Amino acid sequence: MSVATDRPAIILITCDELRADALSCYGGRAVETPHLDRLAHEGVRFTRAYTASPWCLPSRASIITGLYPHNHRAYSNFRDCRLEPERPNLYNVLRGAGYRTAHAGKCHYAPVPYGETKADRTLPYEAFHDYYGSLGIDDLDLQDDKQVSVWFRDDYARELDEAGHLAAYRAAVWDRSASKVFDFPAPAEWHPDAWVGRKAVERIRGHAADQPLFLWASFSGPHFPFDAPAEYHARVRDEHVGTGVYREGEFDDPRRIHHTSYHGGGGIEGAGSAPERACKNYSDDYWQRLRRTYFANVALIDDQVGEVLRAVEEQFGDNALVLFTTDHGEMLGNHRLWGKNNCAYEDVWNVPLLARYPAASPPAAAAGTEQPVPGAALHGTSVDSRVMLTDLAPTCLRAAGVEGAMPTDGLPLEEQATRGGRAFVFAEGEQFLVVGDGHTTYVTAHRRGEALRELFDLDADPHQFENMIDRPEYAARRLRLHEAAEQLFTGALLA
């Protein structure tokens, strides 16, 4: 075996908009996820992992660069602030270190031109394909979001069209009467997440043995539209679907960040599809249908993860680092909201994260000792240390033997775990910042020029119903978190 192939395969598997509690390994009861449960059992389950942003683009840019959004500058889904090709990222750094780099599924490192979309046609997308390749991807199978794949002709849209199903999917996505909830209108094997799983498996099985592989398998689901194939609904336990948790009157104060999302005027994505742009107008029946379809999509993804894991194990044995997470979560009816924009709720911010290390994984320094602890030594454990998705890139670099090859705002996950994790975690977006210490969450946002502030006591109020920002007894906590946020932007706070 060559030196190159001694190095482990690095397999990053992500979803889009996945809640941690949708998985049975995180206590979810609506659907079983046996393949992800196995990964959690064989690897490490992180219970306090946090995204760097509640938006797709900045979160994904943080995953691939290891940087906070204000450092990589791709901080918005909508502004012209794409990830720069010359910026070091896992694709170009690992390719420079001898890895073959592949990506199957959603990229979203540049804003989608939403204003150009047409209900009756699917537009060219070659410029995006070329741009993603310029980031350092050798092999790209692009399915750049469920909606994007009917708006623009990515690789999935092209194959779906050749199979005769694109027109039906495009019509379903554009049907406003469905409010983003419908059964996938084609055979299940053509669902976007089935296609991504299939392409990832093909890349793994077809990989040559003369160099190591870095593959990101990036599922678009269970992000809206909520569109699981009808046969997957049978996997859902209806008695555990529910309509979400909510407190009457929680958004009566117009200073609440999601006052307009709930009462009307828009804000979070779900408001855009709601009657009168107010999430309060959705019925309980709608919430149940939305949640059931979401959980059915999770079951489909779990099946595909099982296929990817089987291919990894057959191709690479135990010489692979496997990471599983999501870019952010989903409100899913909690607080009578769906989507994620401007959300500092744990539903969106606290994400699932699983890691299974190679059998011969590099060691991490143990807290308070000189004795290193291999990542594989953490297998079979649940880690409560606070970590962030900016810790994924340094984890991959260490596994590849090129630790420190690019600047990051993180540490390898195994090192965070053995050192006790982060004192503070952060998430950023356009005119949005949240900071937390595990007990209190402080958030600042702007709505139409108005500065809004919220503070939540997670110990007393885990669902974050009550805004404590004006309570004098919380002044010291507010100041501590505000100072942590200031230190984040001045660079004075260690990752």
From TrEMBL:
Matches recorded under InterPro entries: Alkaline_phosphatase_core_sf, Sulfatase_N
Domain Sulfatase N-terminal: 8-402
CC terms in the record's Gene Ontology section: cytoplasm
Top-rank taxon: Bacteria
EC number: 3.1.6.6
Gene Ontology molecular functions: choline-sulfatase activity; metal ion binding
Pfam families linked to this entry: Sulfatase
Keyword terms: Hydrolase, Metal-binding
Protein name, as recorded: Choline-sulfatase
Biological source species: uncultured Chloroflexota bacterium
